[in-house]
Amino acid sequence: MGRWIVNAAWPYVNSVPHLGTFIHLLSADVFTRYLRLKGEEVIAVTGSDEHGTPIEVAALKQGIEPKQLTNRYHSQILDLLEKYSIQFDNYTRTESPTHIEFTQSFYLRLYEKGHVFKQEVELPHCEKCNRFLPDRFVEGTCPYCLSEGARGDQCENCGRVLDPAELMNPRCAFCNSTSTIKSSTHWFFDLPKFEKEITEYLNLNRQFPDNARNFSLRWLKEGLKPRALTRDNKWGVPSPFPGSEGKTIYVWMEAVLGYVSASIELGERRNEPDLWKKYWLNKDTKNVHFIGKDNIPFHTIILPALLIGSGEGYVLPWQVSSTEFILYEGQGKFSKSRKVGVWMDEALRIAEPEYWRYVLISIRPEAKDANFTWREFERHINSELNDILGNFIHRTLTFVKSSFSSCIPPVSDLSSADQELIEKIKKAPSNVGRLMEEFKLRDALAAVVELARSGNEYLSEKEPWHLIRENKQEAATVINLCSQLVRSLAILLYPFMPQTAAAIWRELAIKGHVEEQRWDDAGRILLETEHQIGQPRPLFHKVDGKQIEEEWKSNTT
Ligand SMILES: [Zn+2]
Ligand SMILES: [Zn+2]
Fold it and tell me: Within 10 A of 68 (CB to CB), how many other CB atoms are there?
C-alpha cells in the first residue's frame, strides 16, 4: 500500500481554461481514481492561479478589481469540474488565506536560512506608462534562438525561461514604445547553491519522461541562475522580506508552493491539521505532477530546490507527467484571441462530458504534440466508443435479457476460444495497470478498448444467435463469459469515464457502486450464475463531426 500526492498544474484564471489546460486536471483525476481502486492512500490537490499582471490587466480593462475577475472564473471552474466529474480533494485558489500565510512563512524561512538575497536590479520600465514592466509585458528578441516576439518570462519558440533584462530590443507590450531600464531593489532565491542537490535528484529520478529529463539537464548544463522572488506589482501575495514593503511575490514562485498549501488547507477542512505532514513529510510518498511541457523547470528544478532549501524534509516531485501540446486543426496552439481551440465551457455545448474525457485521453500528447481535429473527434466516438465498447456491452446484455430472461446463464465445457477470453480478462488489470503506472494513460485506455474489441471478435466467431437454437449450453457459456467481460470493463473504464462505468454497473444490477470495487477484481470471474441483470440501454450515440464543427463555428463567432 502506498501513499500518493496527485497534483495538477494550476489553471491561470484570466479566462475559462481551454482543453489544453483541462487535460492536466483530467489526467490527475483519471490517475487518482485508478489509485483509489488500487486501494492506495491519495490526496489530490490543485486550484486557481489568480495573481500576476495578466489578470491585473484583464480586470483593469473590464473596470473591475482583479479579485472580482478571479472570483468569477474560480466559481465557474468549480462548476465545470463538477460537470466533467473531476474530483479533487481540494480545488482551492492562491487567494486562500492558508496559501498566502504559507507562502510568506515559507519564504521568510528561506530568507532566515540565507537562501534569499537582495539586489538592486535594472528593470525594464516604460516612461510613457509610468510603470515597471512585468515579464510578460516586455516583448523582444530571444537572446538564445533569436526569434522575435519572445516575452520577458519565456521564449515560446525555444521554451527557455527568460529574465526580462535578457531580451534584445525590448518593447512595452501596453503601448509598444521602446522600454528603458530603471533600477529597483528585488529579492532573489539563490538557486545556484542547489546545483549539487538538484543534479543528484535528477540522477535518482530516472522515471521522468524524456522531455522533462532533457529539459532539466540542459538547464543544469547552462548553469542555474538566481530566480527573482519579488515584483513591483500590487496584485499578489505581499512580500514578507524586511524592507520589501509594497512588493509582491512573483506569481510563478508563489503558485508552485500551492501544492503544499492546498494540502495543508485540506487538512484544516477535514479537521485533521496534521494530515499534510503524513504526505509531505514522508519520504516514501509518491508526489506526482500532471503538467504541460512549458512548465517543466518549475517542477523539476525550482520547486525541488525550494523544498530542499527549507530544510523541512518535504518529499520532492517523484514524477512529472509533462505532456506535449494539443494543437487545433493544424492551426497551432490554442488561442482565445485568434479563436483557435476549444474551451471547457464551450465543449459541453458540443458533446457530453464523458465523450470529452474519452477523446482527450485518447489524444493525450504523451510523446509528441497532438493535433485535435473534428474528424478525429468523430472517429474516436463513432468507431471506438460506440462501435466497439458500446456495441459489445449492449449486444451482450440484450442477449442476456432476450434469450436468458435477464439471468446470467451457466458455464459448461470450455473451448480454447473460451479459455483465451478468460485469460484476457485475468491479465487485464495488470496490463492496463502497468500502462497507468508508466503514465501512459492514452495506451491504458486503448488497452481497455482493445479488450472490448476482443469481446466483439469472440461474439462474431461464436455466433451465439445461431448457437442458441443448435446448442443452448454453448451459447450460455459464451454469454456468461461476455457478461464477465462487461463487468471487468466497467471497473477498467471507471478511472476514464466514471459516469459510463456507473451506468454499466447499473445495467448489470450488481450491488454496491463501481467506485467501491478493487481494480484487481476486474481480472476475476465474479458474476454469479442466475444473477439477474437490469435494463440494458445503449451507452453511446454516434456524432457527426462536420455538423458539430459547423454548429460550433456559428456559436463562437
Ligand atoms: Zn528562444
Ligand atoms: Zn508603455
Answer: 11
Q: Give the percent of the chain with pLDDT over 70.
A: 99
Q: Which ligand is nearest to the CA of 142?
A: 1
Q: Measured in angstroms, how far is the CA atom of residue 175 from the centroid of ligand 1?
A: 23
Q: For residues 220 and 184, what is the distance between their CA atoms, to the nearest angstrom? A: 28
294: helix, coil or strand?
helix
Nearest ligand to the CA atom of 156 = 1
* pLDDT per residue as tens digits for the range 168-198: 999 998 889 999 889 999 999 999 999 999 9
pTM: 0.93
For residue 139, how far is its CA from the centre of ligand 2 (angstroms)?
11
Which ligand number lies closest to the CA of residue 159?
1
337 pLDDT band (50/70/90 cuts)?
low
Q: What is the number of the ligand closest to the CA of 125?
A: 2
Distance 138 CA to ligand 2 centre (A): 9
Q: What is the mean pLDDT of residues 313-334?
A: 92
Burial 332-360 (b: 16+ CB within 10 A, else e): ebbeeeeeebbbbbebeebbbbbbbbbbb
CA distance 15 to 80: 13
Mean pLDDT across 54-83: 94
Find the 319 Cα to ligand 2 centroid distance in Å. Answer: 41
Q: Kindly identify the ligand whose nearest atom is closest to the C-alpha of 154.
A: 1
Query: How much distance in Å is there from the Cα of 176 to the middle of ligand 2?
Result: 6
Ligand 2 centroid–CA 33 distance in Å is 48
CA dihedral (265, 96, 322, 216) positive or negative: negative
Residue 539 Cα to ligand 2 middle (Å): 56
User: Tens of pLDDT along 485-527?
Assistant: 999 999 999 999 999 999 999 999 999 999 999 999 999 999 9
- How far from 214 is each of 159, 209, 218, 300, 546, CA to CA, in Å? 12, 9, 6, 11, 40
3-class SS shares of the chain: helix, strand, coil, % to 5: 50, 15, 30
- Residue tagged 525590448 (cell numbers): 170
Query: Residue 130: nearest ligand to its CA?
Result: 2
